[in-house]
Structure formats: C-alpha cells, structure tokens
Amino acid sequence: MLQVADLTVRYGELLAVDEVDLSLQRDETLALLGRSGSGKTTVLRAIAGLVPIVSGTITLDGIDLGPIPPHQRGIGLVFQDFALFPHLDVGDNVGYGLRMQGAADADGRVEEALAMVGLEGLQRRRTDQLSGGQAQRVALARTLAPRPRLLLLDEPLGSLDPALRRTLAEELKALLDRTGVPAIIVTHDTEEAFALGDRVTVLVEGRAAATGPPAQIWNEPRTAEVARIVGHVGIMTATVADGIAVVDGFQVPISAPDGTATLLIRPGAATIGGPIAATVISSRYRGPDWVATVALGDGSIEVSSPEPVSGGEPIDIGIDPTGVTTLA
After folding, report:
1. Distance from C-alpha of 202 to C-alpha of 214, rounded to nearest angstrom
2. In angstroms, what CA-CA distances link 304 with 68, 289, 311?
3. Planar angle of CA 155, 159, 163, nearest 5 degrees
4. Which residues partner with 302 through β-bridges?
C-alpha cells in the first residue's frame, strides 16, 4: 500500500538519502534500522511531506503523494519526545488535531483512541502526571485519533530507560498488531527493530543496504557493515588460496577467488578448547556464563566461558566451519 521508489533527498551539498526503495503492505510494520546520520529519519520525513525530495516517487494506495501537502496525506507521525502539550490534559492532547479540523465526532474518537491504547478514563489526567509509558501511549492515541492510513514513528522509545523500552516495545508491537494500521518505525536499536518490525530495512549512508524479515537480516547480513549494525562481532579478513580461507591457522573452505575475503564467525561457532591458539582481550559476565572477547586475525570473536579469564591470557579455541559466512 506504500511504495517508495528511487527516493533521493539532499540538504544542500549533503546527500542524505540516495535512491532508496521501500515498500509496505497492509497490516505490516517496517523497521528502519541504522546509525545516526544514515538517513532513516529523513526517509520518514520525506514520506510525511516534511522535507522536499530531489527525485523519486512516494505512492500511498496508488496515489502519488508528491503534490499532496502533509496535512492531507492521511499519515500520522509520532516524534521521539512525544511532543505533548503540557498545558492540555490527556483528552485535549488526543483531540487537539481533531478539533483543529472541526471534526464533529471528536469526543467519541478521543475515547476510541484512548481505549485502543489502554488509557480509558484518563481524559482529564494532566500530562505531568503520566509515566513515560503512559506519555508514549497518549502520543500514539493522538496520532491514531484521526484514523490515519499510515503511522510513522521516529525513535518512539528512544527517550525511555532500557528496562522500560523493552516492556513498551512489547506493548507497542501488540498495539500495532491489534489496530492493523501499517507503520514504519525508525530506530538505531537492533533489538527494538527486530522486536517491532515484520521486516527490517538497514540504511547505510543514505542507502538501503538490506531488507528482509529479522531472522534473515541476522542470519544473512551480506555485507560487513550490515553485520556490524545488527550487532555481529567475529568479522575479520582471511587469506584465500585454492578455495581455502585461512585466519591465524584456522582454515575453512569457501567459494571465493584467491586473495582476501571477509568472514563472519557467527555467535556460538567458537568454543573453548581446540587447535587454534588465541589471546583474550577481555571478559564480561553475561548470565549464566562469562563471555570472553578473543583476538583473531584483524578482528575478534566472542567465546562463552564458565569462568572469567584475564585480558592478555592465552587461550585455545575451536571454530565450527558451518558457523562461518563470507561477507561482501
């Protein structure tokens, strides 16, 4: 129902978004994942009509949004800081846009939106009496009240503490599933993107580097940059000769020409005990085991350990060849 094709956005000389393609189905949530400056918020703002585009098209239900002003696009936008009006109570915050538009059934739609987010009966609550989670839900209710065709959420959990973010990510996913409103969520947090997105698009320097279901993005990152963004370690350069890649004595057959190749050693592929001599960089507790970061080649890998090990300590490890992937 949403199609973004060859989207390009510039800020002066800065190329912020470079020929990005996106699509969104009905009842689907797409997560845009990337580092700061990758262009993900600019994509969101371009869809909303808040920044001009250099080239490309954005269509919603087959209609070109290019000539349509932001307030007529039928798109709801939730900002990171929620942008609630402190001088208005919950009900007036939720109904603000409706009343500005002169909606005759504003009161009923406010009640409907608050019920959707589980805040029935809080119309007269002041915004400074809300918890972080309640404030997020009020912002969502305000966006849902006009019954948008599409929801855009810019770092909706970014201003909350980590423990609350995890809880509210689950609530937000359930809410989006319940309402059936298609949504695009911008985040720099991999766990959040995987929890919320039916599909994930990874943006790298303004380009869409990978798109797919969370499991595919994790298991098949394709490039070293995508692998790093989603949280993989174990990325290193190998020397390749006659179809055999070698890193510090570890050998694995790969399909690559002679020269060098970039390898990803997946989590769990390395174990303590084996033919490879390595050196511990550091270790940290990650219940129920310790995790040792071990230098290998020009990179490092993580190995579970039943006890802490000291930095600089020699260690022997083994690597399962089936846990090794070649990256572009």
Report:
1. 10
2. 55, 6, 15
3. 105
4. 293
β-sheet bridge partners, residue 58: 4
What is residue 42's three-state secondary structure? helix
8 Å CB contact between 39 and 25 = no
Contact by Cβ (8 Å): 172, 2: no
What is the DSSP-derived secondary structure letter of residue 258? S
Q: What's the rounded Cα separation, in Å, for the pair 85 and 94? A: 10
User: What pLDDT does residue 159 have?
Assistant: 65
- DSSP per-residue codes, 102-167: T-TTHHHHHHHHHHHTT-TT-TT-BGGG--HHHHHHHHHHHHHTT--SEEEEESTTTTS-HHHHHH
Q: Diameter of the chain by CA atoms?
A: 75
Show the domains of the chain with their CATH numbers.
2-226 (3.40.50.300), 235-327 (2.40.50.140)
What is the rounded distance in angstroms from the CA atom of residue 84 to the CA atom of residue 102? 20
Structure tokens at 121: 């009966």
pTM of the prediction? 0.89
Write down the H helix ranges in the chain. Answer: 40-48, 90-100, 106-116, 132-144, 162-179, 190-196, 214-219, 224-229
| Tens-digit pLDDT profile for residues 160-207 | 777 777 777 888 888 888 888 999 999 999 999 999 999 999 999 999
- Cβ atoms of 34 and 202 within 8 Å: the answer is yes
